[in-house]
Design a protein that fits this description.
Number of strands: 41
Helix content: 10-25%
Strand content: 35-45%
Radius of gyration: 35 Å
Shape: globular
Length: about 800
């Protein structure tokens, strides 16, 4: 024993007892390894089902934990020993982006606090139970949206005083916008609207013309497999967020995210999803008419990382609706009929015709329809009163700041002509409220054209029947009053003059237009119509175009009428010549009316129709005495006959997880043979797009194909879409709402009676030998509560 050691040499019994006690304690400490006190996780339960249900994200088919900002969630951690609140520390780390930094909020490290701060990332102990703890985490309502990598850190203070730390990689957490949170900029107070504009995975996109509006069923499918991952990939591919880590902070802002996504949906911008094509030739890709939803487009992009071919405006709009709903921003597809495309920023749509009545090609156009989007958000970047619905457009039309992008443009500013507020507000204003001007031009010897005078001005001919799907109903809602005051009112004309003042006018227009309004009290008025009416003209039949002329002047006139008919794209571009008729000069007394007819046979347009079976009829009336010219055009489309039927086999409703058969039946609607016929079936929560090749179908012949599907999600109304396409005709559609029930709960096993003779020892032994997994599965199944039917899908 060392001389300085306390021991029995001193002869003090009390000191001896104390010495033995200390010696024994030291030996105990050495017997217990220091690492035995380190806190290690046995299990970290992110309570995915409960958290995602509370966050309205349970439908996402994603391996990550999908949550919304502005809410709390819970995590339960179980350890190999009891949790010591004094010696043990737990930290939760969230990181987003390639180089996360705490100074830019791209990295957050949370420790336990006594209370939660709803305005910041924070964490508190919710409950503790021996060797497990449950923590509650608050996500701030302005958190950066995107995919976070997560790590749980555990720090233990050992008996030696040393601090030992362990780190566990946990599942990724995806944070979305939250329209249920009052402090989020996308907050929407109405529950029915939230259900429609965020949770509804199917809907209508309206097409046609102002004379014949037709809904197209669209499968948005924002919850389907790989959709959310693809949307987050698009966020990452936005070149502007790669400049500096601080740019990731822009993902807090729905204004920025909507603008970025309007860019990334189009391949006209590097890395975008969809390639636009208005040529009518779609070799190497899909005709825009063939798409029935966004799912197949985004899944193909996710797989190939290459632009998907091809799309047009309604496809771009349906795609953007999917992308923004997936991110949690309330969004709807909106259609503007007689939609102007002002390429020069003049707030006028300029058309030129020669003195002989021939149309001269120009850059401006009026589309039969154009589909864009509206997104709901506050606008903290603008004066008060400009929040709410904002127009956003992903169709690549005009370049703005080096990219094809449009919006968000506040509807409140568009309506009042305040084109200096928001993004590309002037372009959207021109789409809905520009004036149409017909200019008379003279062809010069060198082949160029010189504007001579104004032929006619129309102040009420664009921006008609602006349409979207009604909340909770399979009906059209008219939004025209949200975009402009009633046509011809003082407020509407004042809005035009304000916008016009911020436009750019050519020199000839400044001198001639002078903002005079059209005068219907003089000249020749033309009114165009078809027989049968617009809704009853079918592809494969003959029809007649009628021109009614009225002399509004006080003197007789000698009139020459020239007409032409072309097939067109829905954007108003002539594609193929069909017919031209020039009538001999005729006299019109003051106030008199004359009607001329132009018959059109199927043979004259067969093989010339392009997308949407659109046609454009132009009538030009020349007055001999005054040398004035008056023109009017009529854009219409030939409807496809209803020729597709969907039949679900069996009398009972479909069930989740149960295979069922659906028959699609088709009758050739044309008096010609159809070749390369295909039938496609798809439906969100029902089946991914599946295509069957049918080959040739003779005139008036029938064909059918059987599809098998296994529903993944229940709902009273799940939308199923069938599409038939061929070389000769496309866009033959049919849709049907299908009821899908949850699978029935398994019947609980009856408790055996003690005296029952059949309960032999052998049977009891067999029951005892059941694997533990089977018993656990059985208990879990028996404990499952029956789930309510999905109410997010609208009632048809």
């Amino acid at each position: 024993m060392a001389p300085n050691d306390e021991g029995p040499k001193r002869g003090n019994v009390r000191r001896l007892a104390k010495w033995f006690s200390k010696r024994s304690f030291r030996r105990q400490r050495k017997a217990l390894p220091e690492e035995g006190l380190v806190m290690k996780t046995v299990d970290c339960d992110w309570m995915k089902a409960a958290n995602q249900t509370a966050h309205h994200t349970a439908d996402y088919e994603n391996s990550a934990i999908v949550l919304r900002r502005g809410q709390t969630f819970k995590i339960k951690a179980t350890f190999q020993r009891d949790f010591n609140e004094t010696a043990d520390k737990v930290f939760l780390v969230f990181s987003i982006g390639k180089k996360p930094q705490e100074m830019y909020d791209t990295k957050v490290r949370l420790s336990l606090s006594e209370t939660l701060n709803p305005a910041k990332w924070s964490m508190k102990l919710h409950e503790s139970d021996n060797n497990s703890i449950t923590v509650e985490v608050s996500i701030p309502p302005n958190a950066i949206v995107g995919r976070y990598q997560t790590v749980v850190e555990f720090s233990s203070k050992l008996d030696s005083g040393e601090i030992s730390t362990s780190r566990d990689k946990e599942p990724d957490v995806i944070v979305l916008f939250n329209p249920w949170c009052k402090d989020d900029e996308v907050f929407m107070a109405d529950e029915e609207k939230r259900s429609e504009y965020v949770l509804n995975d199917s809907g209508n996109v309206y097409r046609g013309s102002s004379r014949s509006i037709r809904p197209k069923k669209w499968n948005f499918g924002q919850f389907e497999e790989n959709i959310l991952d693809t949307v987050l990939l698009l966020l990452d591919k936005d070149k502007r967020t790669k400049i500096d880590a601080k740019w990731l902070q822009k993902r807090r802002d729905p204004v920025w995210v909507c603008r970025a996504m309007s860019t990334m949906c189009s391949s006209a911008n590097d890395g975008g999803v969809l390639e636009g094509n208005w040529s009518g030739a779609y070799d190497g890709g899909m005709s825009p008419l063939a798409w029935n939803g966004s799912v197949q487009i985004l899944q193909q992009y996710h797989s190939t990382k290459k632009a998907v071919q091809y799309g047009q405006c309604w496809v771009f709009s349906g795609l953007l609706t999917t992308v923004l709903r997936a991110l949690g921003i309330p969004t709807r597809s909106v259609t503007n009929f007689a939609s102007a495309h002002d390429t020069e920023g003049t707030m006028t749509i300029d058309k030129y015709i020669t003195e002989e009545g021939e149309e001269v090609e120009g850059s401006d156009s009026v589309w039969n329809f154009h589909v864009w989007n509206e997104c709901w958000m506050a606008r903290k970047d603008l004066p008060e009163g400009y929040g709410g619905w904002q127009a956003v457009d992903s169709t690549p039309q005009e370049i703005s700041l080096g990219l094809f992008q449009t919006g968000p443009a506040p509807l409140a500013a568009i309506k009042k002509g305040e084109v200096y507020l928001g993004y590309e507000t002037s372009f959207v204003f021109a789409e809905v409220n520009s004036d149409r001007i017909t200019w008379i031009a003279k062809k010069l010897p060198d082949g160029s054209m010189e504007v001579q005078k104004i032929g006619q001005r129309y102040t009420r001919s664009v921006g008609k029947y602006i349409s979207t799907k009604k909340v909770g109903l399979d009906e059209r809602e008219d939004l025209t009053d949200d975009y402009k005051f009633p046509e011809g009112t003082d407020e509407e004309r004042a809005a035009f003059r304000l916008a016009y003042g911020f436009g750019s006018q050519p020199e000839y227009q400044k001198g001639m237009l002078a903002l005079q309004e059209e005068d219907p009290t003089d000249g020749i008025a033309l009114e165009l119509s078809t027989t049968p009416g617009d809704d009853d003209i079918y592809n494969g039949t003959e029809f007649t175009v009628k021109v009614e002329l009225k002399n509004n002047g006080s003197e007789a006139k000698t009139v020459t009428l020239t007409t032409s008919l072309h097939t067109t794209t829905y954007t108003g571009i002539n594609k193929a010549f069909v017919k031209r008729m020039k009538f001999d000069p005729f006299q019109m007394e003051a106030g008199a009316s004359v009607t001329k007819e132009v018959p059109v046979s199927f043979a004259s347009y067969n093989g010339k129709l392009v997308d949407h079976n659109a046609m454009r009829f132009l009538a030009v009336a020349s007055v001999k005495e005054t040398k004035k010219m008056f023109s009017e055009d009529l854009e219409f489309r030939l409807e496809n006959k209803d020729c597709v039927d969907i039949e679900v086999q069996g009398d009972e409703a479909l069930q989740v997880g149960k295979k069922s058969n659906v028959v699609v039946k088709f009758t050739n609607p044309l008096p010609i043979k159809l070749t390369h016929v295909t039938i496609t079936l798809e439906g969100a929560g029902l089946t991914n797009p599946v295509t069957h090749k049918m080959g040739v179908v003779l005139p008036n012949a029938k064909a059918e194909s059987i599809f098998s599907l296994t529903p993944k999600r229940a709902g009273q109304y799940r939308l199923l879409i069938a599409d038939v396409d061929s070389r000769q005709v496309q866009d033959l559609k049919q849709s049907q709402y299908i009821q899908v029930d949850y699978a029935p709960e398994p019947a609980p096993e009856s408790t055996p009676e003690l005296a029952k003779e059949s309960d032999t020892p052998a049977e009891e032994a067999k029951e005892e030998e059941k694997p533990a997994e089977d018993k656990a599965d059985q208990n879990e199944s028996e404990a499952t509560e029956s789930k309510p039917q999905d109410s997010s899908t609208p009632t048809p």
